[in-house]
Amino acid sequence: MITIKDIVRGAGASIATVSRALNGKEGVSEETKNHVLEIVDNLEYRSNALARGLKLNRTNTIGVLFPEMSSQILKFYYQCLYL
């Protein structure tokens, strides 16, 4: 799995700079941001959603419990939520 440290090594920048570039924060030159994003594309980096959720204490996930799936209306709601 590719980590942010791999991007740091490839970009020759600090973890803070790479993090700011990836998160669209200010304080990173356009040239550096483009270089970091090029490294990200080359390495096919994908952020770890679980790690991000733990760090931010937010997962942006909704849990829904249905009593049974035999009801057509519940199946409809499930299909709407799944999209």
TrEMBL record:
Molecular function in Gene Ontology: DNA-binding transcription factor activity; transcription cis-regulatory region binding
All residue ranges annotated as the HTH lacI-type domain in the record: 2-56
Keyword Transcription (UniProt): yes
Top-level lineage group: Bacteria
A Pfam family assignment: LacI
Keywords: DNA-binding, Transcription, Transcription regulation
Listed InterPro entries: HTH_LacI (IPR000843), Lambda_DNA-bd_dom_sf (IPR010982)
PANTHER family: HTH-TYPE TRANSCRIPTIONAL REGULATOR GALS, LACI-RELATED TRANSCRIPTIONAL REPRESSOR
Protein name stated in the entry: Helix-turn-helix transcriptional regulator
Organism of provenance: Dolosigranulum savutiense
